[in-house]
Amino acid sequence: MQAMKIATWNIKQAVAPRKPLQELWNFAADVIDADVMVFTEGKVPGDGVPEGWTAVWRDEGVDDKRTWGTVIAARNGVEIVDITNGVDGDGGFVISHSWPGTVSIVDVLQEGKPVLTIAGIYGITQDADGNQVGHGGHSVPNILNELVDLVNSPRGERLVIAGDFNLLPADMPEELYEIMVDVVEDTADLREPLDGCTACSFDGESCGHLWTHKDDSSEDNAMHNIDYVFIAPELAGVCVDVYGGEADFEGIWEMSDHAPVVVEFEF
Length: 267
Ligand SMILES: [Zn+2]
Hints:
Number of strands: 14
CATH topology: Deoxyribonuclease I, Chain A
CATH architecture: 4-Layer Sandwich
Low-confidence stretches: none
Shape: globular
Mean pLDDT: 95
Bound molecules: zinc ion
Number of domains: 1
Largest sheet: 6 strands, mixed
CATH superfamily: Endonuclease/exonuclease/phosphatase
Strand content: 25-35%
Helix content: 10-25%
Radius of gyration: 17 Å
Distance between the termini: 5 Å
């Protein structure tokens, strides 16, 4: 058996104040200790992908004004292959991108064998006309629709969809829960309730969400669970640990306004 740790983390390169990229990538290696990172609002440092990592990303970011995007990076001998724009032929999939740069997709290989396919997504906070709306309520359902052919392809059985959805639990698209497993909700009874969870979906039950986003603009210092990892039901048997949020990364708000969500697999 071999362990693999994957994590999603928004490293806040869209809005100031920004931490130096090298510091954020070092944190991912040293503190999160991830084998594969999905960095949302991410960038590769100006002098290139840091030593020890390989990465898949769209160099221009989302557009001219938004030069950040979803970066997927790997280390510790884990190989990633860029399939963001689909794969031809039998068993392949087609995809379009309404917001290029917000979605990156990789096959993840361990010792040459494909073990996961990861779609890293960022729920850009725009409506259909490009106006800022402050949440992913328009973009996320569109991005998920664009992933349907991937979900239905053979890769769907080893698919992970991870990222910053910019949606609170109660606002998440229900269809996603019919086809994939929200690893945090699935393990909710193993952790302490998140007292102050905003727009919780656990409706009266004890909440096991993670505090993944600190909203300084809200008066009640709201605890947002807006970063998610979904796995194909077929992966449930190899998923061995789920953790993250502020509870597991004390002092994280010094680094970003988001905290990581971490999932460990054993293959
Ligand atoms: Zn909750």
